[in-house]
Design brief:
The protein is an alpha+beta fold. It has helices at about 5-15, 25-35, 45-55, 100-115, 130-140, and strands spanning about 15-20, 60, 70-75, 80-90, 120-125, 145-155, 165-170.
């Protein structure tokens, strides 16, 4: 898998840093998710746990004062130890439109590939989330790997009864 060095260098020059989240970032990450008005908002407690238990498979971008301004959370599939599942991606409204989500996704996958190997990336996207569709489609194109889509969970499986289906995006395989 090839890194996107120009994107990573640009992100590091525009933002203070890109690194793993810390527990104390949980509240800010929760607020960014809430304010996105697109993501399914998890409890604030779950974001604290995520920053503790899944920091190795997640990233944050920090602003000038060190506060999180964007994040990508992910985990390794237990039955596929070289598959990174991207759970959520969000960028604070003041920092959108600068390619930060793509830069974070590239940085995370480069780090996971270096730390433990990576054969594929998976995420689920509802059909009305065009920003995420564009992000993951462009990611596959940038890395010159296949992108497969299939319905993972039909909308009627959700207890709310009004949930759109979750479409699984499977990206890869990456060259190892």
């Amino acid at each position: 898998m090839t890194a996107a060095p120009a994107d990573l260098a640009r992100a590091r020059s525009e933002f203070l840093s890109i690194d793993a989240p810390r527990v104390e970032d949980g509240a800010a990450i929760w607020r960014i998710a809430r304010d996105s008005q697109v993501l399914d908002l998890n409890s604030s407690y779950s974001y604290l746990l995520w920053c503790r238990d899944f920091a190795a498979t997640s990233v944050v971008a920090r602003g000038e004062s060190g506060e999180p301004i964007a994040f990508v959370t992910g985990y390794i599939r237990p039955d596929r130890p070289q598959t990174l599942v991207v759970w959520q991606v969000a960028v604070d409204a003041a920092h959108r439109g600068k390619g930060l989500a793509a830069t974070l996704l590239d940085a995370l996958t480069v780090r996971v590939a270096a730390d433990q190997g990576l054969s594929s990336v998976e995420t689920t996207i509802t059909p009305d989330n065009t920003a995420s569709e564009r992000l993951f489609t462009s990611y596959a194109q940038r890395h010159d790997v296949a992108l497969e889509r299939e319905v993972l969970f039909d909308g009627d499986l959700f207890p709310e009864g009004t949930h759109l289906p979750e479409v699984l995006y499977r990206i890869g395989p990456f060259a190892t």
